[in-house]
Write a structure and sequence with these properties.
7-stranded mixed β-sheet, globular, Metallo-beta-lactamase, Chain A, binds zinc ion, alpha/beta, 330 residues
Length: 330
């Protein structure tokens, strides 16, 4: 597989050959193509929360990005049954912003310039919501994949949120900075794509010095976020419980990338998980807990604005989207 195909598989858009790539994906994007809100505000206890969009990622083709090795007709039938396209999956890039006691906290930083012009809109959309990059006091990274950590730095390695502390799990930090991060338990085999993922993680982590704060499983950050290890997607991948008074919200990061193919079929899996089987186990465990507790969930990649619940359905789960209401700009 050549580099362009590899990156198209990963993201639909890539570092290279914009014009060519755009012509390849223009049709499905235009077919989707309606105007979206770029931020959505709500309250959680005493916290002011906001979801801000970084854009979107198009994964094409669907397999083997999703459901690697699963019978294609079964996958297609599942998509058709849910009125979804069978040639691509569009992922949201939903960034949760918390305002608390004078702090402005981001959970993840989006793609930056790593995936082309359909993503990397976080700073522009924050500004539409009245937040300048210098206002951001904290950025919590759920895991160091390029669509989560890639927005920390610009092309010249400059920090895009210059006054922010950046929090990353010690496990992910050590994994990505190790000499040879282990992908032997992943279904991802494309070496160029793996190298791209490693390079973006290293570039961004290495650009940080005093700003970087490493956390452990169970640590609480800035009084309102508890990080919980949910390994598999990466070794240090975390979900985050955001809490205020009695209210709470679970940010599930990259536990799932599709409601139709992953929430409803946790074992079909995701090629980009660095430990495929561990990710399936973690996904089942976390979704079981969240369904039992009827928790409000925020998802980084499920449809805008990423808020909803999971409930048990047979031997798996279903995603129940909470529709956006409130003072969104348009
Ligand atoms: Zn992601």
């Amino acid at each position: 597989m050549d580099r362009r195909t590899a990156l198209l598989r990963f993201a639909g858009l890539a570092l290279i050959g914009f014009t060519d790539i755009r012509s390849l994906v223009a049709k499905p994007l235009n077919a989707i193509g309606k105007k979206r809100n770029s931020f959505h505000q709500f309250k959680l206890g005493e916290l002011d929360l906001m979801v801000v969009s970084d854009g979107r990622i198009v994964m094409k083709p669907i397999q083997p990005n999703f459901a690697p090795g699963i019978n294609s007709r079964r996958v297609e039938q599942e998509l058709e049954r849910n009125f979804a396209p069978t040639d691509h999956i569009e992922l949201g890039i939903n960034i949760l912003v918390i305002k608390s006691k004078g702090r402005t906290i981001l959970l993840d930083s989006g793609c930056g310039a790593n995936f082309g012009e359909q993503s990397g809109g976080l700073i522009k959309n924050l500004q539409k919501a009245g937040i300048n990059p210098e206002d951001v006091t904290d950025v919590v990274i759920t895991h160091a994949h390029p669509d989560h950590i890639g927005g920390l730095t610009g092309a010249e390695n400059q920090l895009l949120f210059p006054k922010a502390k950046v929090y990353l799990s010690r496990i992910d930090h050590d994994f990505w900075l190790s000499e040879n991060p282990d992908f032997s338990k992943s279904k991802l085999t494309d070496q160029q794509l793996i190298q791209f993922v490693k390079d973006v993680a290293k570039k961004n982590i290495n650009a940080l010095s005093d700003q970087l704060h490493l956390f452990e499983d169970g640590d609480t950050i800035v009084d309102c976020i508890t990080m919980q290890l949910a390994p598999g997607h990466t070794p240090g991948h975390c979900v985050a419980k955001i809490f205020s008074n009695e209210a709470s919200l679970y940010h599930i990061a990259d536990l799932v990338h599709s409601a139709i193919l992953v929430v409803a079929h946790p074992e079909w899996g995701f090629e980009g998980d660095s430990n495929f089987n561990q990710a399936v186990q973690t996904r089942r465990k976390v979704m079981s807990d969240l369904a039992a507790s009827r928790s409000l969930i925020f998802s980084y990649h499920l449809p805008w604005p990423g808020l909803g619940h999971v409930r048990k359905k047979g031997n798996a789960y279903e995603w129940v989207q909470q529709l956006a209401m409130g003072p969104d700009e348009s």
